[in-house]
Amino acid sequence: MLWMSCDRTRVITRASFGESPANDTGNHTCASAAKPRPARVSASLNLYNLIHNMNKRRNVAAQKIGSASSGTAKNRLSEEDQRSGKVIALLNQKGGAGKTTLATHLAGEFALQGHRVTLLDADPQGSALDWAQRRAQSGQSRLYGVFGLARDSLHQEAPKIALNADFVVIDGPPRVAALARSALLAADLVLIPVQPSAYDVWASHEMVRLITEARVFRPLLRAAFVINRSVVGTVIGREARAALADQPFPALQVEVSQRIVFADSVAAGHLAFEVAPRSAAAREIVALAQAVREMLL
Predict the structure, then answer these.
(1) What's the pTM?
(2) How far from chain centre, in Å, is Cα 85?
(3) Measured in whole angstroms, how far is the alpha carbon of residue 5 from the centre of its chain?
(4) Fold (topology level) of 85-296
(5) pLDDT tens digits, 111-135
(6) Helix 198-217 crosses helix 177-186 at what angle (to 10 degrees)?
(7) 3-class state of residue 218 by DSSP
């Protein structure tokens, strides 16, 4: 399986706030068909080419920085990299894990703390865009920008967007390996939401494999499980945590429970904090945001 798809499809955004983060260049196809290679070799070469192209663009950018000396240009480029925001991707190949709920609330909590935040909806279903549209229709204030970016050039566009943000949150797709791989190349941290069930723990193995592959090229990529929709007062959450102990990535101590306030807030384009500021749901999101920030230190 290749790490990147050759085709790039134009995305129609159903709702957006502010200016578009990147120009849509339309459809692209491969220039020519190379001689068939074994799947693993093709995957490695394809990802190597992506990393090579990203580094090449950085070198070109350094050469274009004014007429200063090469040393000054490198310093400026380094300072620009240091000003880049952190990219957090919520990914799980299994649908229904609650990625969009966590993505919108995590982005909202960062925004409420005064940070510049952008949420990228990389799910072809566009659930985060639907949430943002409902929020706009209900007259709620804009907390952060929401853009549709469900294409495999995500690894190229997300770092550019991060130059003008403190946090970029990616609501990843289920069962779309090419988009997931692109998100992995863009991310500083990957959060894997899992429900406390054996099915979700089993399904997470595919995501673990993709992250392990990405770490060959991105050794500093961090990842953690988030137990989501746990049922308060049951032992099932502890059982799920015990099952995740065998995985190569840690599970955050913070858990997000199954609560009615989440369902009610999402349906209206709100956040749990806005519906019930003193609720347990609001406190759980605050704790999740703090745990994420600690992982990024």
Answers:
(1) 0.74
(2) 13
(3) 19
(4) Rossmann fold (3.40.50)
(5) 999 999 999 999 999 999 999 999 9
(6) 60
(7) coil
